[in-house]
């Protein structure tokens, strides 16, 4: 029976049971898409990341939720870099990941041991808050933006903590247009306990009710916070109930740095 190497990582976490779970599976070559999707469904965490070496310090990277392949995933990229540095002995200054829809992503290890990811940050457009969205969220946002996802601003962190949306209703809603803005909602407010912004991310459109730590969401949040509050660098808390995750961001032009750390919680093999 063939086996594949397997690592489960808590990303954007300083210790186990924090941040967001990702499975990382280094491969010699990509398996058929249906097999990659089936493995991700079996792993049943937010994302499974697959990497294949493609050069010195370069890997091709793909991400799958239990339901679909996604174009970008921050926490699983952080988890993958953690595996390369901490589990597989990579010692280079930086890691390059080539992706299908998000181009080349780079990760480097900082002097304090945290990892810094360099991601694209796409444009955002302010949009009206509809009654349909407000009803599905269970509270009316003060403002909203469309972009990679739907971003909803609330007035206080307490409002964000208290959200209990109708996930079935959210699944088919979003900003005008098509793509990953459908059924994927980032809800945020400025401030929080020692942070610049507090947020939660609901992703029924990607097969995830609520994501504990979402790097891709923070690439959009960094852009929104720059336009609304004139912040280029910020400390963020993603307030998933019972876990929580801390993510630092630095917006630089059309790129954003996402900074965090990870811990390995399981390592072994996956039997096919």
Automatic annotation (TrEMBL):
Listed GO cellular component terms?
A: cytoplasm
Q: Where is the active site?
A: 47
Gene Ontology MF, one: isomerase activity
The alphabetical list of record keywords is: Isomerase
Xref: InterPro entries:
Phenazine_PhzF-like
Q: Which domain of life is it from?
A: Bacteria
Q: Report the Pfam families cross-referenced here.
A: PhzC-PhzF
Q: Does the keyword Nuclease apply?
A: no
**Sorted alphabetically, which SUPFAM superfamilies does this protein's record hold?**
Diaminopimelate epimerase-like
Return the similarity comment: Belongs to the PhzF family.
Q: Which NCBIfam families match?
A: PhzF_family
Task: Report what the protein is called.
Answer: PhzF family phenazine biosynthesis protein
Which taxonomic lineage does the organism of this UniProt entry have? Bacteria, Pseudomonadati, Pseudomonadota, Alphaproteobacteria, Hyphomonadales
């Amino acid at each position: 029976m063939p086996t594949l190497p397997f690592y489960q990582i808590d990303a954007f976490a300083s210790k186990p049971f924090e941040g967001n779970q990702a499975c990382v599976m280094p491969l010699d070559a990509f398996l058929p898409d249906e097999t990659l999707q089936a493995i991700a469904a079996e792993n049943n965490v937010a994302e499974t990341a697959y990497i294949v070496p493609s050069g010195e310090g370069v890997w091709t990277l793909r991400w799958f939720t239990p339901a679909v392949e996604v174009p970008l995933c921050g926490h699983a990229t952080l988890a993958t870099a953690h595996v390369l540095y901490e589990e597989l002995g990579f010692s280079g200054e930086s890691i390059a990941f080539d992706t299908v829809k998000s181009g080349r992503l780079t990760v480097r290890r900082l002097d304090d041991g945290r990892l810094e990811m360099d991601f694209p940050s796409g444009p955002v457009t302010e949009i009206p808050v509809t009654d349909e969205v407000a009803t599905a969220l269970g509270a009316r946002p003060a403002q909203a933006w469309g972009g990679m996802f739907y971003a909803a601003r609330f007035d206080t962190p307490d409002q964000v903590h208290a959200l209990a949306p109708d996930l079935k209703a959210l699944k088919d809603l979003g900003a005008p247009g098509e793509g990953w803005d459908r059924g994927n909602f980032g809800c945020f407010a400025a401030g929080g306990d020692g942070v610049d912004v507090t947020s939660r991310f609901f992703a029924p459109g990607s097969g995830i009710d609520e994501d504990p730590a979402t790097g891709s969401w923070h690439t959009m949040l960094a852009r929104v916070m720059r336009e609304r509050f004139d912040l280029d660098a910020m400390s963020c808390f993603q307030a998933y109930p019972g876990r929580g995750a801390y993510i630092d961001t630095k917006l630089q032009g059309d790129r954003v740095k996402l900074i965090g750390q990870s811990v390995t919680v399981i390592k072994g093999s996956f039997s096919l």
